[in-house]
Amino acid sequence: MNNLEPNKWIEQLIRPQILGPLLIIIGFIGLYFSTIVRNPYTILYPLVLIGAVSAFYLLRPHTEIKMVILETTYLKAILVVIFVLCSLLILQYRASGFHRTNIVFYFTFAAYVFSALFILSSSHETIGLLTILLIGITNRLTSYYNSALYSGVDIYSHSHFVQTTAQEGSLIVFSTNKYFYSPFYHILVAVGELTYSVPTRDAIALTVLLAVTVLPVIIVYSITSAFWNRQVGLIAGWLYVTADFAINWGIQVIPTSLGVVFFALLLFSLVKYTNLKEKRQYGLVISFIVSLMFTHQVSLFIGITAIGVLTLVILIYRMELSETALNLGLVAGFSMFVDFIVTKYSGPSGEASFFDVVLGNLLAALLSMGALTRSEIKLPQDPTISPSGAAALTLLQVTGSALLLLLAVFGALYWLSMQRTNREFFTGVLLSGIVTALLAVTLAGPAIGLRNLLPNRWWAFLYLPLTILAGPGLLVLVQEMRYKWTGRSEMVIGFVVLLLFISPYTVLMVGNHAGAPDQPFLDDAPGAESLSISDQDQELIEHSERYQGDLDIITDRRLSAIFSRYYDVSSRTLYIDYNEPASLYQPSIIVNRKYIHTKHAQYEVEYNDQRMVVHGAFPLKHLPVDNKSQLYNSGDNSLTYYRV
């Protein structure tokens, strides 16, 4: 029996004839759940499951994907347009003082759309791959430098660690930190800083930013091309490079970003190992899981989850214990045991292991979890404040990822319905299993109040197998459109594809809260925060240091983190008792930047003896006028002294 031949009963169960109705049932269960926990994910994703299965049954695609070339006459013209758009993008970015204006966004959107048109119209895979990588890098760099400091929160701590590592030439900065056991990111950037003789910010861009942009796209392209054709691989790569959270970790460049790189390499090795059974590939699986171990604990856990799911898939697929499943299970179990036991949560000088702390937090979360523990349930019905998390988003912010999921479900059903080789069929099952597991953690965790596994960071990892499934999904839809519209010109079909999917997907992914964390183009939602720091904000921070003395500095939640992580200045997050708006730390200095008066700002509210993070304009006007005096004013920003 072939090692990849499925058990005959299992083979029947994982055919679309069984999976389709099952997905529809899950979709309807999800719709019911959305009446209990209501946010864009619980509303859209169940509809996507139902819609994708319905579309698959309506179209019934059973022909092999061919090289779908829409129009070859204007290839050179399309390349010229892409080059002109990128040039105009950079020129406009420079002319606006290295800020992303709406015009810069328009050029970015257009460049992505024309690159997709080139891929759909050309068989030149090398040029196509270079084109999407060029635009992806340009997009991330313009966003990365669209801030006087960094865009993000954790990056301020990690940039400080990198600077200290480069200066000291040792890991002494981690003596009381768990990153003593996972310093790959900091060592890599520190080496880049010393090698290129550039500031830390530029070293991060030259090392991790480029790696997290280029390598995952190449991996997605390589895996997809191996099982379909190179055009499908390019489409999958394009879907990934434009995906919101894939962009996000190329802008908020922290150890998670490097974790995405190693996870992509791990996924590639897992696919190769399960197909070829080569010892060399098994060695690579071990090396990449070790790399994740020395990079980031959450990334390691995601990698272990993927290997664990793959082991389970193999066991169920064959209904027997194979050498491959045993080897992978040993890697997952041993790496988790070593990392969780050896790693001390507070560094080598600490006592509690990472396992003790994480398990304790996880058990506490499990004991208190439930839909009613979510902040949107506990907060008062007040239009001036919004809960944090998914409830602070709108349907517009999530529609891009919903489109990607729709294509992935359609593509997975198509993959499993084709009478292909055992190797190809098994890989479709493997990828679908990993997507299902990662999606379950990413969505179910926050839905029931379980956030200890940081599910929001799982998206970029999830998008890797998701786009591999979505690539054939998009191409087969285009192909079916060609068959249904026989006699229509290729240009008309191409225009419809761009209008109905490519353009909306690009804007919704590249412009939403995750795709543009520095300054969202689509800023309709309270959760669409702007994480960039303006020159005026930086000036305000530096002025507040001079006035501080023995007073507390209080400001919005994001700026408070920058004070402590980057400037090593103690500060507090703006906080009020909901029933007593005048309550505030006093005496104190309020860092009153323009941003705290927008619906996107974050501060803390106490309600019914519980303190929660909310979005909304901070009610500074409710503080007694006699208790406030202005220390500094620069127009939109000011420092306010508040006292009893």
UniProtKB/TrEMBL annotation:
Presence of the UniProt keyword Zinc in the record: no
Protein name according to UniProt: Glycosyltransferase RgtA/B/C/D-like domain-containing protein
TM stretches of this protein: 18-37, 43-60, 72-91, 103-120, 179-196, 203-229, 249-273, 285-318, 324-342, 354-372, 392-416, 428-448, 460-479, 491-511
Keywords carried by this UniProt record: Membrane, Transmembrane, Transmembrane helix
Top-level lineage group: Archaea
